[in-house]
Amino acid sequence: MKPSATKILLLIACLMTSAVRPTLAGAQDFGFEPPADATDPALLAALSDLAERVLPAYQEDDPDRYLSTVAALQMVVGDPAAAHATRLSLQERLQSEQGSLPGGRAVVYDIYAHARAIATTESIPFADAYGQAFRERMNSLDDLDAYELERWFSTPTEPLRDRLQGELDQRRGKSVIELKEAVDLVQAWFAYEAYRSFGSQVEPLLVEDKERRYILEEVAIPVSQDATIAAALIRPRSATAVRELPTLLEFTLDRASRDAREAAAHGYASVLALSRIAGDPALRPRAPFESEGSDARAAIEWIAKQSWSNGRVGMQGHGYGGFVAWSAAKRPPPALKAIATSDPMAPGIDLPSPNGIFQNSAYRWVHEILASPDDEVANDDARWRGIDEDWYRAGRTYREFPTLPGRTSAIFRSWLNHPSYDRFWQKWLPFGAEFAAIDIPVLTVTGYYSAGETGELH
């Protein structure tokens, strides 16, 4: 083959290769020798110099990624106003594609870029600028969008710093960086810098936003002549001003583990009640499960009579809370219109003896519910292992399982006296034909590998 023909084929091959690659600029290298530590103040100057050289060369076939990256590069070079304008273009593009404004981390970065732009153009402290940008964006969101956005503000900075440090570690011993690597490094810096900058300011702003959106009350709901249950009542301000609301009621053993605002964000009056067995010791029933059905029915009837209620109540719950919903449905009051549960406990079915086999963990579960705050045994794993192992090595019968002094032992013994699903257990949940009498919608959720599958299927 003649040399001229060879050159022509090589040229054609190069043209064909460039046609399938994202950009020709992707092959460019840039001189770059950054400091070794992600917290070194000199890093910003090094990245700014790099970004100034990358910006004219950067191209990207994906327009969303292109705009996001350009905004990060503009922030690094110290032009937050341009970065804010670029992110506004990204918002408009995503809104045209999705029919709504983007959510999630994109909003977090939008607010940050806007705050930096305000601080620069108006010459005000970043804290003030961030509060202004935060309120402006959050005020444009409805309750549900705002609720779903909250978790994106709570990303810890340590993993973001570690990611940036990892990018720098890859640069050690090198004096050049490829375009893609430069873009990844700038994105890592932008994420870390954003969360580090607003991290200490966002929590009070979130609290302020919640107070603006919701009415929160602590209430004591009467369930008998001499007993009440403590509950958090949360209502959306936007809805309560114009109408009475349906209510979503949930019982729990630990109110700190549940967020009553989720139901309120969906437009309900939300009632999160602490089960009496886990509440005031003076008002506790004798054992778990015993009073929950009647307590739930009393709470539903109380809710239906309140001025903010439209008389329609739904119940939801997971685990013990799911049991309470089913227990209320055994004899549903007229105001109960639906239940939704995931992996509800089913006493006598999956606790304390799933598939007819008693489990020592059921004893510990009751002890933890009834334990006082200063109980040293409740969370002592070694102590519980010792109890199990001592009984196993002794070869004693299960009725001789070693127990601790106190009320828990009597409860566990009463369960051992009913190894079959007899009336002792049947009184707490719908049984037999009672299921057929439930004429309200029911949503029931479990998973193939879920620990609560047995109770849910029942």
Describe this structure as you would to a colleague.
With 458 residues, the protein is of the alpha/beta class. The protein folds into 3 domains: 176 residues, no CATH class; 163 residues, 3-Layer(aba) Sandwich (Rossmann fold); 60 residues, no CATH class. The protein contains 20 helices and 9 strands. The strands form 2 sheets. It has a 7-stranded mixed β-sheet with strand order 3-4-6-5-7-8-9. Strands 1-2 form a two-stranded antiparallel ribbon. Helix 2 packs across helix 3, helix 2 crosses helix 9 and helix 8 packs antiparallel against helix 9. The longest helix has 20 residues. It is elongated and about 80 Å long.
N-to-C series of helices and strands: HEHHHHHHHEHHEEHEHEHEHEHHHHHEH
Weakly predicted, low-confidence segments: 1-26
Q: Biggest β-sheet: count, sense, barrel?
A: 7 strands, mixed
Q: How large a portion of the residues is in β-strands, by DSSP E? A: 5-15%
- First-residue to last-residue Cα separation: 80 Å
pLDDT averaged over residues: 91
Q: How helical, in percent, are the residues?
A: 40-55%
Structural class: alpha/beta
Placed side by side, the strands forming the largest sheet appear as: 3-4-6-5-7-8-9
DSSP strand tally: 9
Tally of separate helices = 20
Query: What gross morphology would you assign?
Result: elongated
Total individual domains: 3
**What radius of gyration results from the CA coordinates?**
30 Å
Summarize this entry quickly.
The protein has helices spanning 3-20, 42-57, 63-76, 80-98, 105-122, 126-138, 143-150, 157-169, 179-198, 202-213, 237-240, 261-265, 292-304, 320-329, 360-370, 381-394, 407-416, 423-426, 433-436, 453-457; strands at residues 29-31, 176-178, 214-224, 227-236, 245-252, 269-274, 309-318, 336-342, 442-445. By secondary structure, it is an alpha/beta fold.
